[in-house]
Amino acid sequence: MNRRGMVVIGAGPAGLAAAIAAKQQGIGDVLVVEREDYAGGLLHQCIHDGFGLHRFREELTGPEYAERYIAMARKEEIEILTGTGVLDILESDGGKRLYMLSERRGLIEVEARAVVLAMGCREKNRGNVNIPGSRPAGIMTAGLAQRMVNLEGYLPGREIVILGSGDIGLIMARRMTWEGARVRAVVEIQPYPGGLNRNIVQCLNDFHIPLYLSHSITDIRGDSRLEAVEISPIDAGREPRDRGRFVVPCDTLLLSVGLVPENELSLKAGVELDPVTQGPVVDSSLMTSVEGIFACGNVLHVHDIVDYVSEDAEICGITAARFVRGGLDRGSEVEVRAGNLVRYVLPSRVRSGEGARLSLRPILPAENAVLTVKDGDEVLYRRKYRKVYPSGMLRVPVPRVPEHSGRLEVGFTLAPEGSGAPDGESGSDSFGGEAGSEAV
Amino acid sequence: MFHNYEVAVIGGGVVGASICRELARYRIRVALIEAEHEVSFGTSKANSGIIHAGFHASPGSLKARLAVAGNREFDRLAEELEFPFERRGELVVAFTEEELQVLQGLFDRGTRNGVLYMELLGRERALEMEPNLSPDLLGALYAPTAGIIGPYEYCFALAENAVQNGVELLLGERVVWIGRTGWWGYQIETATGLKVSSRFVVNASGLHADEIAAMVGITSFKIIPRKGEEYLLDKRVGNLVRRVIFPVPTPSSKGMLVIPTVDGPVMVGPTAEDIDNKRDFSTTRDGLKRVFEHAQRMVPAIRTTDVITSFVGLRPVATGGDFIIGETEAPGFVNVAGIQSPGLTASPAIAVMVRETLLKQGLKLEVRQDFEPRRKPFLKIRKLVEHRDFESLRRAVEAEGKYSKLVCRCENVTEAEIVEAIRRGHLTLDGIKYATRSGMGRCQGGFCTSRVMKILHRETGIPFERMTKKGPGSEILRIRLDKLDRGAERVRSPHGTKGRDREERG
Predict the structure, then answer these.
(1) Helix, strand, coil share (%) of chain B residues, nearest 5
(2) Do residues B466 and B370 both lie within one domain?
(3) Which of A19, A201, A325, A385 makes a 20 to 30 Å CA pair with A412?
(4) What is the ipTM of this complex?
(5) Is residue B105 part of a domain?
(6) Inter-chain contact A137–B495, Cβ cutoff 8 Å?
(7) A215 interfaces chain B, CB cutoff of 8 Å
(8) Catalytic residue chosen out of the listed positions B37, B52, B208, B294
(9) Domain span holding position B478
(10) Do B352 and B389 belong together in one domain?
């Protein structure tokens, strides 16, 4: 039986950062398990630049960003088992027992004191959004198309429609155009774009690609191969309207309709999930509902940019290391709740008497929004944003959580126009310069 | 090329494949001719996957007789052919006093049809059996002999076993012409120019049975496609129901059901709508709404947000409503038409009936001593993982290293299984998907598609840009980028260059 202090599942940006941090905290035998044949995760297919501005103060491509972390892991002499998929996590006397299938070593069993989940997320597909119509070839997720173009060297088609304005879809609009395809439309059901503003400008506007907001695809046509899609305006009740409906001939439909944390394994291990983020419920140390299992990166919640994935994962590596050494003192914890206009806030519990950093997303795009973190009536933190978008994650430092705090509530209030100078803006402050492909 | 057979079966759905597997027991030359590039890819693959108990059809009808007889065959078939099958039972739930009356009628009908072990349940008993049913129900009819099955796996297994025993499978051959050859039988031509001659012809061509029959002058019936939309829910929703849940039926349909599947996810549907286009496989907003309204009435916990995929099946409904099976005015030409529900259930009995018909028509049936009823086993790693049977898994991996390479992470399908499916003749991506479940999970192929394509290329040499979803015309990728076009002398073009040099030739 192979025994380890810590096993990290996934060698993408989250897993690598967690493992490096744990190793630096003295967990000498940390093992990273990766189902691909190489470490770095999906960064390898994100060949555009804009990564690393926060983390490295430079503009890197996805593979370059991955390479930095792979080099750090190598320097720390961290063992990465590639070509290996984790099948199951069971409770055992020594902590957790993991069953893995390795291409080279067959079925492996490993005992670990702590497990860090870093499996990332996956794309939603056609079934998840219930697009009516026939089922020809030529419909795929934007991420699969990205893989086909950037890693395999094939263009899925010539006449493209993209459903959803998530960042991968926007980046693929530009990428496909560069490779000689014609992107005829990007269709978004919401009245605002799903991806970062920067990508709307750089990937659509610069190439004169039309973006149809408040529209959706209401029919797919074609028998063997996709021939056309029908696009309809969507009214406030989310019902399609006949007026303004039009048909666009195309041979390929890319879907960029959202990402979902990949928690199949977490569920097997008995980890409780949050219905909003679809990631594990975690405490201030990023530990899940199962003692000894931690989570970080996009498996926890879908991040907007990879730099923050790395940053959060480091914290996770440190706390998991503390747990392995028996020093994880959770102290007294305070619940954090998503209040007005906040879709979710993480972690759901913070430690009292210390500072905390919260990650959150607004429900709607808003202007002149004032964010407050309150303990009862006491305001612990307040910041005004000129603009916030659901596509941009906000990161909020809470200087100190009071000792006898009851519960923290994070919410927005919308300030009237012209009420003081803006002191923050998501989309140019946090996200300026980012090409913004999250660690997809 | 010229092919001579004693029996040519047109249509590789469950009916045609069952007939072939039955005929494979005898020393005769049999061909199975299928228009699609995989068997079952017409109506069969889009089946609800229910082996009915047999109380729905009117007593005395072919449907009733063959469904009840067919139902009894499935334990043996599943053991010999290793396809997923479980006798879970079915419940018809009633919500009004009138519906309770109909239940009594169904019970009586089932008794007359020879259905065993049926019970009429009160409200408490029904809810105890299926706690997720709506508490508004008043009673239910329970038929424990009903089962659930993997319909395409059943069809694949039948065809494979038939081929194992000498039947010739002709895929991608759409029949366009049938003529009498005077003294000996029929000549059949397909769209690719293939010519087949055969003494007997069995018309099991599903939706196209009327067109095929018309080729030999039989115009006594028409096939109307009856469209059914079905929606598959995420596995995570779990075992909402253990048995197949029916509403009280209407004259045109058994109604929209809540169906547990052998692979875990719950399925809801199908709609029933007569249409005129035999190639209309489109789902609709309206269909989705109706399916969920009906399903939620029976099982309130079902939600549209749990849908992972949907599909459409077209039932071949013949004029008259009942199955049309038997000899015709064209000697040696046997119709097996209008096989809608409960056709899957009836398929083993239909095969026997067709064998008897051919025998009467003069086909000599000499038993083949070396008939092998067992299909070559097809190990599925995901079953071992689901059952946490890690010891068996270890042995499998030690015997064959490729079982340790995961290709589909949602369904735990390994490279060895993909290779096995390809070797069993599945050369389309949908074929490999249906044979292995790779790409059928909640990510619907987002992760494994490119991996499966690489394996398919390595095993068969088929170039990426010729790989199809379900046969020629459904290619997945259209253009190979210059930079990987290693064979050509073309110069690598800069980004943004448009032009024909990017098109793959041929």
Answers:
(1) 35, 25, 40
(2) no
(3) A201
(4) 0.86
(5) no
(6) no
(7) no
(8) B52
(9) 381-484
(10) no
Residues of chain A contacting residue B442, judged by C-beta atoms under 8 Å apart: 122, 264
Which of B42, B75, B32 shows the shortest CA–CA distance to B165?
B32
DSSP A69-107: HHHHHHHTT-EEE-SEEEEEEEEETTEEEEEEEETTTEE
Residue B362 lies in a domain: yes
Are B372 and B406 contained in the same domain? no
Q: Which residues of B touch A137 (CB under 8 A)?
A: 468-470, 474-476
Q: Is residue B257 part of a domain?
A: no
Element (H, E) at B298: helix B285-298
Q: Does residue A92 belong to the interface with chain B, where contact is any CB pair within 8 Å?
A: no
- pTM value? 0.89
- Concatenated DSSP letters for B74-101? HHHHHHHH---EE---EEEEE-SHHHHH
Q: Which of B410, B443, B481 sits opposite A153 (nearest CB)?
A: B481
**How many Å apart are CA B13 and CA B16, to the nearest integer?**
5
Most B CBs within 10 Å, among A9, A87, A175, to test the B interface: A87
CATH number at residue B449: 1.10.10.1100
> Do B166 and B57 lie in a common domain?
yes
Both B19 and B159 in one domain: the answer is yes
Residue A7 DSSP one-character state: E
- For residues A160 and A176, is the Cβ–Cβ distance under 8 A? yes
B457 given a catalytic annotation = no
Q: At what angle do helices A306-324 and A13-24 cross, to 10 degrees?
A: 40
| Contact yes or no for A135 and B410 at CB 8 A | no
**Do residue B385 and residue B328 come from a single domain?**
no
CB contact under 8 A, B479 and A158: yes
CA separation (Å) from A170 to A143, A194, A259, B168, B498? 11, 9, 14, 49, 21
Q: Chain B partners of A126 at a C-beta cutoff of 8 Å?
A: 309, 444
Segment-wise mean pLDDT, segments of 10 residues, chain B, 506 residues: 87 98 98 97 95 96 97 97 96 96 96 97 97 96 97 97 97 97 88 96 98 97 96 84 93 85 93 93 93 94 89 95 95 97 97 98 96 94 94 94 91 96 96 95 84 96 93 88 46 36 33
Assigned token pair, B134: 């709506």
Walk me through the domains of chain A, giving residue ranges and CATH numbers: 2-122+260-324 (3.50.50.60), 125-257 (3.50.50.60), 333-414 (2.60.40)
